[in-house]
Amino acid sequence: PGGIILPEGELGNSIVFLFSGQAQIVHSSVEGQEESGRFGPGDYFGELSFFLQERRNCSVVAIDYVQAFVLSRSAYQEICRLDETFDKVLNSIAAEHAGFKQQLLVNGLVI
Question: Helix, strand, or coil here: 64?
């Protein structure tokens, strides 16, 4: 609990798929640290900065103990090299949760 899963300022080189536990999006504001959303089992995050190749301007922090799979850029590229459909599948999965992720972007947050 309290561990940083994806740190603010890091270049988006990974996507995290959460199997168990809870995590929250936190960012710095004038009032201090603010929560902007939560993730639970079955959620994934980090794809915005991953596909945009941007630095994250907020962090994802574990609320409790989590189990997750981290897909690194190098693993992603290798899988895409072996299976040409992987990129399309991952992008279509990302499109399913576009509403919440678009709201983050509207608020200026890139995970």
Answer: coil
Query: Would you say 110 and 52 are in contact if contact means Cβ atoms under 8 Å apart?
Result: yes
pTM: 0.86
- Quick check: 49 and 74 in contact, CB under 8 A? no
Residue 110 backbone dihedrals phi, psi, to 5 degrees: -125, 115
Beta-strand ranges (E) seen in the chain are 4-6, 14-20, 23-29, 32-39, 44-45, 59-62, 67-72
21-50 residues labelled b (16+ CB within 10 A) or e (exposed): bbbbbbbeeeeeeeebbebeeebbbbbbbb
Per-residue pLDDT of the chain (111 residues; tens, 9 = 90+): 899 999 999 999 999 999 999 999 998 777 878 888 999 999 999 988 998 899 998 999 999 999 999 999 999 999 999 998 998 888 887 777 777 777 777 778 788
Radius of gyration of the chain from its Cα atoms, rounded to whole angstroms: 14
